[in-house]
Design brief:
Blueprint lengths: L2 H13 L2 E3 H8 L3 H13 L3 E3 L5 E4 L2 H9 L3 H17 L4 H11 L5 H14 L4 H14 L8 H14 L3 H14 L5 H17 L3 H15 L5 H18 L2 H15 L12 H17 L2 H17 L2 H4 L4 H13 L2 H18 L2 H17 L3 H18 L2 H17 L3 H12 L8 H16 L3 H12 L12 H15 L2 H13 L7 H16 L5 H18 L2 H17 L3 H17 L3 H17 L2
Antiparallel strand pairs: 1-3, 2-3
Helix pairs in contact: 1-2, 1-3, 1-4, 1-5, 2-3, 2-5, 5-6, 6-7, 7-8, 8-9, 9-10, 9-11, 10-11, 11-12, 11-13, 12-13, 13-14, 13-15, 14-15, 15-16, 15-18, 16-18, 18-19, 18-20, 19-20, 20-21, 20-22, 21-22, 22-23, 22-24, 23-24, 24-25, 24-26, 25-26, 26-27, 26-28, 27-28, 28-29, 28-30, 29-30, ...
Length: 614
């Protein structure tokens, strides 16, 4: 192959898998006409393909490009990258387009190259955090003595990019280096480094360490910080408290942050709204967990308004806000809204490589989709949550995903798989006390019940809930767990105890309880009534009301369960024609959701009622 043709091929390889012929000819130092002839020859040899507009080519395969690139000498490649960077600068290309070439050709101490790499990283952090971290690493390596004071700032940015991508351990190591290199008088940078270190500890499930870092910074360095920086620390404390199940502290710190943002120099809703939206979503979830539906709805409405008014470009660095909002909406029973915000958060998390937040978003989505009866999608999201959690080294999203997988397996009649998912999650010592542990511990209950161990079910639910009042479960979700206990007591043959559990479910309701939770309380009473022959007519009415509540909540599998109970009660009363309609409804719903075990039960009851119908 002629030398010029080889040189042009190498110039194209320097520019990338796809390249502009004019720019490649400049890098090759060749006349453009001669370069085009060389590219034609490379195309005839099937090394290149024409691409799109006239004058663009691409390598047949990335491996071909790599082989051509590596065939050039190291010195030649450095000079070629320098030419490419200069040519792109003359064309007005943004720093992100020039950064790959600057990184490969800049000399140590080149202040302009350092500035360009930093600017490029800032452009790419939201969309490609790993690439941004690599460019910041190059900027740090190129920095000379004049940039020594800026090193901690660059290290923080590099660590933050790695944390964004879910590479928490690497980010943690760099943050320690940044903290040691930090001048003692730079209080504001220290606060930012501390907040990021605490965020890493939080994402790793190290809640005590995260809280200690944040509280120490609030105590020692708050006088030198802006209101926005103080609010970030307060919101960090609130986030950790909420994950630990300390809803009072979470609400208190979130309220403090909102007040701080209203101070002069803060950035409340009228300026940069995302901090206020984060505080609002934290408050919504804290109040919903505590059972204060009115306050939850107030803060949730404000957070949702901000989310819906914010475009993706601004929201992308703040995808924890749709995650928190989605969890709050799930707790309040608004499944469609929850899925809408979780889907948006997931799309942005995938786009920007936010692995840690994606794990939480996947787990929340799995729970929502399970309640909606979309089990195939729910299972896929649960698997994605588990994989993302393994990448970041945090067991809590894995446990939340395991509770969803267990519920899906139970609906599908695979009790062994459901039980194994719970037991595997419970065996992890790193799972700290809090809502995720309560969720997986509670899910162990119905698994044991379906495996023929109702006494074990009662023990598991009471242990997870922290005693007979089930205070470790969110207040608005307790009727669901009391209904599990009701079923377990019925399976043990203790109808009186079952009746007390059903009354507990009803007592846990408030006027603002989600429709689905009303359904659980009604269904618990109906199941107790169904076991008492003299109460079958009332049980049928309660089961019908439960089915209506579940239909309102868009929970089709629970609606099918309630319809099956209503049909059974009606059949026991001799009202077989009415029973048939309930059994048909249960069969159709369970079939539509792909749950053959429940469908077969409905079919069997349908046949039995049809046989005795006059």
């Amino acid at each position: 192959m002629p030398v010029l043709t080889q040189t042009c091929a190498r110039a194209g390889a320097v520019l990338g898998d796809s390249f502009d012929a004019e720019l490649a000819s400049f890098v090759a130092g060749a006349d453009e006409t001669a370069a085009l002839a060389a590219f034609d020859e490379l195309t005839e040899r099937d090394l290149l393909r024409r691409e799109g507009p006239l004058g663009r080519f691409r390598f047949r395969h990335p491996l071909v490009r790599t082989a051509v690139y590596q065939s050039a000498g190291s010195g030649w490649r450095i000079e070629a990258h320098r030419k490419a960077a200069n040519a792109l600068a003359l064309r007005g290309a943004p720093p992100a387009a020039r950064a790959p070439h600057i990184r490969q050709s800049a000399r140590p101490g080149d202040a302009r190259a350092v500035e360009d790499l930093i600017a490029a990283a800032e452009q790419m952090t939201a969309l490609a955090p790993v690439t941004a971290a690599e460019w910041l690493g190059a900027a740090i390596a190129l920095s000379g003595p004049r940039q020594e004071r800026s090193q901690p700032e660059l290290l923080l940015k590099q660590a933050a990019a790695l944390v964004t991508a879910g590479r928490l351990r690497e980010g943690q190591d760099i943050l320690r280096t940044a903290a040691h290199a930090l001048p003692e008088d730079d209080l504001r940078l220290r606060a930012r480094i501390t907040a990021t270190r605490a965020d890493v500890e939080y994402q790793l499930g190290h809640y005590h360490q995260a809280t200690a870092l944040l509280l120490r910074e609030l105590k020692d360095g708050a006088d030198g910080l802006s209101p926005a920086e103080i609010a970030d620390l307060q919101l960090g404390v609130a986030s950790v408290a909420l994950r630990r199940g300390d809803v009072d502290s979470a609400a208190e710190r979130s309220e403090e942050a909102l007040r701080t943002l209203q101070e002069p120099g803060g950035d409340g809703p009228g300026r940069e709204p995302m901090r206020a939206a984060r505080a609002g979503s934290l408050l919504a979830l804290a109040h919903a967990t505590a059972g204060d539906a009115a306050q939850a709805d107030l803060h949730l409405a404000r957070a949702v308004q901000t989310l819906d008014d914010t475009d993706d470009r601004i929201l992308a660095p703040h995808v924890d806000v749709p995650a928190l909002t989605g969890w709050a909406e799930l707790t309040r029973g608004d499944l469609d809204a929850a899925l809408r915000h979780l889907d948006r958060g997931l799309r942005l998390a995938r786009l920007t490589g936010r692995t840690a937040v994606a794990a939480d978003l996947y787990a929340a989505s799995a729970h929502v989709l399970t309640l909606l009866g979309r089990l195939d999608e729910a299972e896929a999201h649960a698997e994605d949550a588990a994989e993302a959690a393994v990448l970041i080294g945090n067991d809590e999203p894995r446990s939340l995903a395991a509770s969803a997988r267990s519920a899906i397996a139970l609906w599908r009649g695979d009790v062994a798989r459901a039980l194994a998912a719970c037991e595997e999650a419970m065996s992890r010592d790193s799972l700290a006390p809090g809502p995720p542990r309560a969720a997986i511990g509670g899910m162990l209950g119905p698994c044991l019940l379906e495996s023929g161990d109702p006494a074990g079910c009662v023990r598991a639910v009471l242990t997870a809930g922290g005693g007979t009042d089930l205070l470790r479960f969110g207040a608005l979700t307790r009727p669901r767990w009391f209904r599990v206990l009701t079923r377990a007591e019925l399976a043990r043959g203790d109808v009186a105890a079952a009746g007390r559990r059903a009354e507990d479910a009803a007592a846990a309701l408030t006027p603002d309880s989600p429709a689905g939770q009303r359904g659980f309380a009604l269904l618990a009473r109906a199941e107790v009534g169904l076991s008492l022959k003299e109460a079958e007519s009332e049980a049928a009415e309660q089961a019908d009301e439960a089915a209506t509540a579940f239909r309102t909540a868009r929970m089709p599998l629970y609606e099918a369960t309630a319809s099956l109970a209503a049909g059974s009660a009606l059949a026991a009363c001799g009202r077989h024609a009415e029973a048939l309609t309930r059994f048909v409804r249960a069969r159709d719903l369970s079939a539509a959701c792909g749950v053959p075990a429940l469908r077969d039960r409905a079919e069997e009851r349908l046949r039995r009622s049809a046989d005795v119908r006059p």
